[in-house]
Amino acid sequence: xxxxxxxRYVLTDELYGLLKQKILSHDISAGNKINIDQLARDLGxxxxxxREALFRLASDGFVKVVPFKGMYVAEMNMxxxxxxxxxxxxxxxxxxxKAAPHIPKFRLEQILQELDxxxxxxxxxxEENVISKMNHDLHGTIFAYAGxxxxxxxxxxxxxxxxxxxxxxxxxxxxxxxxAEHRRIVLALLEKDTEKAVEASRIHLHQAYQRLRDNxx
Length: 217
Known about the structure:
Layout: H1 2-24, H2 36-43, H3 47-59, E1 63-66, E2 70-73, H4 78-99, H5 105-125, H6 128-146, H7 149-168, H8 175-190, H9 194-216
Antiparallel strand pairs: 1-2
């Protein structure tokens, strides 16, 4: 019995990742009703692990459960963007404050070098994974040293929801501005100036928020 439970949990995890990727890439469009029976047939699994995966996606904000009607891919709108960033402003300030005293100098110097490489890669390719790498290098490092796994999970889920919007607008962002903003955060952290790092992070998030709103209109 334990083996059966374990295999179902593993399957649910796999379906969760697969369905989330379909939503992020817009293979399943925002607002669409999710046909669980059809998904089960297409994927060759039963309805149960698909429902479990969808409820997890609902808790992450990717799926909306409508009583007596079914499950729908969460809508994308300005209100959602506003609410996501309102939460990020508060949580990421907390993350910077908690992480700032603990991030090693060598890691921050690595990030600066990686930003130079990112700038060159972006100029050469404009591939979306370049942006993902840049965000992971800085934001991932901050969360790693903040020492709060729940905080990391909450903000990571919000950032993934932002990527759904970025995928929709095909990453029409000002990459030079993004790189410059990241660099200011890292330099403030190298100076061991937490307040300066918090302010640089706040400015970066506000600018990213405004760029996303402008592109999504």
